[in-house]
Amino acid sequence: MTSYLVTGASRGIGLEFIRQLSQDPNNTVIALVRNAAKSVYLQEISDLPNVHVVEGDVTSVEKMQKAAESVATITGGSLDYVIQNAGGIYGSDTSLADPSNDLSNLVDDLKGDFEVNAVSGVITTNAFLPLLRKGKAKKIILISSAIGDIQFTRTTGFAGIASYGAGKAALNFIAQKYAVELASEGFVVLPLSPGFVDTSSTKEGGQTQPSEEDIKKMQAVFDQWVKSQPDWDRKPLTVQDSVTKQLKVIAAVGPEDSGKLISQNGNTAWL
Ligand SMILES: NC(=O)c1ccc[n+]([C@@H]2O[C@H](COP(=O)([O-])OP(=O)(O)OC[C@H]3O[C@@H](n4cnc5c(N)ncnc54)[C@H](OP(=O)(O)O)[C@@H]3O)[C@@H](O)[C@H]2O)c1
């Protein structure tokens, strides 16, 4: 059996990782969620024989160490893959120099985004490292974003979602640090961007129609993002498509890729 732990598995991309990985009966798939009782979408598949649900909060050392104990019981003390997907935009999605943004709010966003997107990577990795060291695959995947890539920012001129971008940029650096430190043990540590993904089908409150105003704002953002990939069709990926592509990349990467931020396409085509 090959064991996978996916964090942030209650909905969105994390849930789809559980769906696709659990289709192979040779996989033991562990879904880490903050609250199992409230993870309604996961409940649709959590009674599959190879799916296990463990609770944990990726910002809590104590809870993640407890989660690692539970995972060890399920797997017999090892773990092959960890896909650290929990995270996201913590606060508002402003730029840094927007005069309408209160500085205290901005600082709160920076701290929150850093905690949930970067510090979480160290908490999760270290909590599970003893199990991963006993695993066969030795792959640590950190779901990141092109928004945290300096070259993407320079090419597109995109100043928005700044504190989230800073958190993911820090995660990319943390991944590189782990990559060099764990290389001699045969680990591959990969910051992986999932693309721009529509996760609205598992959003709390269901799918909502964006307002005219929202559509206008998104079009302006797309006008910038397309500069990084002129042939982009300006459409988000489906969550199924993104995860299928990411799983191919996860299977294919080797030591030469360790520490390098790449996309669901296995390169720097981010969209
Ligand atoms: N969607 C995109 O276009 C896109 C693009 C680039 C990168 N990403 C990255 O991909 C990942 C997944 O994104 P998504 O769009 O699927 O997000 P999502 O639908 O908002 O789901 C986020 C998941 O993370 C969990 N989570 C958040 N904070 C947590 C914590 N402290 N401890 C444990 N779990 C926590 C949430 O759990 P609860 O249900 O308990 O809240 C939820 O399961 C994120 O890291 C995001 O930054 C997404």
Shape: globular
Q: Quaternary state, please? A: single chain
The major beta sheet can be summarized as: 7 strands, parallel
Proportion of β residues?
A: 5-15%
CATH superfamily (homologous) name? NAD(P)-binding Rossmann-like Domain
The CATH topology assignment is Rossmann fold
Q: Reading side by side through the largest sheet, how are the strands ordered?
A: 3-2-1-4-5-6-9
Protein name: NAD(P)-binding protein
Pfam family, one: adh_short
Organism: Umbelopsis vinacea
GO molecular function: oxidoreductase activity, acting on the CH-OH group of donors, NAD or NADP as acceptor
SSE map:
Blueprint: E1 2-7, H1 12-21, E2 27-33, H2 40-43, E3 51-55, H3 61-75, E4 81-84, H4 103-133, E5 139-143, H5 150-156, H6 162-182, E6 188-193, E7 197-198, H7 212-225, E8 237-238, H8 239-252, E9 262-263
Parallel strand pairs: 1-2, 1-4, 2-3, 4-5, 5-6, 6-9, 7-8
Helix pairs in contact: 1-8, 3-4, 4-6
The chain binds NADP nicotinamide-adenine-dinucleotide phosphate.
The site of NADP nicotinamide-adenine-dinucleotide phosphate (NAP) has 25 residues, from helix 1.
